[in-house]
Design goal:
Blueprint lengths: L8 E2 L3 E5 L5 H8 L2 H4 L9 H16 L3 E8 L4 E12 L4 E9 L8 H16 L4 E7 L3 H9 L3 E11 L5 E10 H10 L4
Parallel strand pairs: 5-6
Antiparallel strand pairs: 1-2, 2-3, 3-4, 4-5, 6-8, 7-8
Length: 192
């Protein structure tokens, strides 16, 4: 995966494009709700934290560690959040989809599901990756349910895995979708 390339993915619902410094003002309008960041490793509930989150995300792309996207709703033409592809292993044909957050007004709208579809389609159908991983906080029941609803298989729990922004040690639960499962998932879950 070439991090210097501007990857743009879209369907009738969402547009995913590279995160840019110019997205700050749009993200500022939706990011400052603490509930959004409750289960995230980082927090961006004020201008200073959001600026650091954006700087870290853009730097991660420059260092080829993670490819952050800005999510736009095609219905409203507004920025609604961010997601990323990271932990990429070209040798193993494996990557992780994560670092996802949406403004609270966009939860339950189907945007997250459509983002996951576009990213899965790109990783599996275009790049021929064998495995796509997801991870979340064990306590994040909503995220765990959403991952099961897109056909991801729960794999296991890594105890005391990650230090959270509030000092809590998170138990992390892993999920995955394999290339051998994708055709069935694409038809059954996404109707494609």
């Amino acid at each position: 995966m070439d991090f210097s390339e501007n990857i743009v993915l879209q369907n009738d619902t969402v547009l995913l494009r590279p995160l840019m410094e110019g997205d700050y003002e749009d993200l500022k309008n939706i990011a400052f709700n603490p509930d959004i960041w409750k289960y995230n490793v980082t927090s961006a509930v004020n201008e200073q934290e959001l600026k650091k989150w954006m700087d870290d995300s853009i730097e991660a792309r420059k260092n080829q560690l993670r490819y952050p996207f800005t999510i736009e709703s095609k219905r409203t033409n507004k920025v609604v959040g961010s997601t990323s592809i990271g932990n990429i292993s070209l040798t193993d044909k494996r990557a992780e989809i994560g670092w996802t957050w949406l403004g609270s007004g966009f939860h339950g709208t189907g945007i997250n599901k459509q983002c996951k579809f576009l990213l899965l389609q790109h990783l599996i159908d275009v790049l021929n990756f064998e495995r796509v991983e997801f991870k979340t906080d064990l306590l994040n029941i909503k995220s765990r349910r959403a991952l099961k609803n897109i056909g991801a298989t729960e794999e296991g729990i890594l105890r005391s895995h990650t230090l959270m922004h509030d000092g809590r040690r998170r138990d992390t639960i892993y999920f995955s979708i394999l290339i051998s499962e994708w055709l069935t998932i694409k038809k059954k879950i996404f109707g494609k």
